[in-house]
Structures are given as structure tokens and as C-alpha cells.
Sequence to fold (196 residues):
Amino acid sequence: MAEGQQPDPSLPKKHRLQNRWCLWYFKNDKSKDWKDNLKLVISFDTVEDFWAVYNHIVPPSGIATGCDYMLFKDGIQPMWEDDKNKHGGRWLVNIDKKGPRPTIIDQYWIETLMCLIGEAFGDSSDEVCGAVVNIRPKGNKIAIWTGDVKKRDNILHIGKEYKERLGLPPGYLISYQSHTDTMIKTGSSSKSTFTV
Fold:
């Protein structure tokens, strides 16, 4: 639009999100460094732009094994080392690929995105940095990343609300792991700081 020109009132008005979000894609190419495999796909800050993006990308169940989607607030890199992430952790949901509904990952992912862009965690939403979906050979994972492991009340509120929004049964536990513990883990799993 040219300077001084008024917006066309006949065009529909877009609905702004509270935050600007960036969608990232990680392609598992073993010939490249991890950081070189990470690509920023697009940024958006309206409901309409979110749906335009979401409706034109392959769902998580359709991306190659070893690849990830990541949705993070603008200005936060989807990596442990980012200043906004390094003192935080993640709520982790493991999804068994052998279950009766392999596309449940797609349903959980869209609900996760709705929680993020819709600021579903109330005042605790400020603690949310982003989310990651990992497509792996043995089982897929979805995680919501938060910025400060010391903010216990916020973290527990996010975890309880997230579990409820996914419709997980009471006996199904999701765990919160600090990024520090995940980095120094031995074996295939790291210890949980919280579970709900």
C-alpha cells in the first residue's frame, strides 16, 4: 500500500495474534551440521496467515523420519542454546507408532499449535517459547518448550492444561524435563523434573 493510502474497507480484516510466530523445519541430512539442517519456513502474526501456512504444509505424519517441525515465538531460535531457552525445559508427550491411530500425531500437533497461538495457558503463556514435533523411527514426540525451569507454578499450570487440551486420560503421565538434564542424559531418557 502506498504511503498515505487508506486500506480497502471491502477487504476482510485480519485478526492479530498476541505474538508473532516462526515455523521452522529440520531436515535430517547427515552430511550437514545440525544448524545447517534447520530452516526458517515462514513467520506470521494473524489467525488467517496461520491457517494459510498450516493448510499448505505436509502434516507431521507425512514428513520423513528424523525430521521436525518447530513453532517458536519470533526472536527465539528453536535450540537449547538460545538465551530464552537455555534455562528452561519441555513438556514431552511420547506417541507410540504402533498404536491404532498413527495420525494421532497430526491431531496432537494442531492442538499444540492452537494452545500456543491462542495463548491457552493464561498468564503462564508468557513462559512458553515454542513447540517441537519429532518424527522418529521408534516413536514420535511433541514438546512444549518453556523458558525458566524455576517457575514451577507456571510450568505445572502449562502441563496440566496441555494434558487436558490433548484429551489424555488421567493415568497417562506427561513429563517435564529441563534442557540441562536432557543435554547431559545417559541412555535414552532423561530424568523428569515434573509429571502430570
In short: The CA atoms of residues 95 and 179 lie 20 Å apart. Helices lie at 34-37, 47-54, 104-117, 152-166, 179-183. The mean pLDDT is 89.
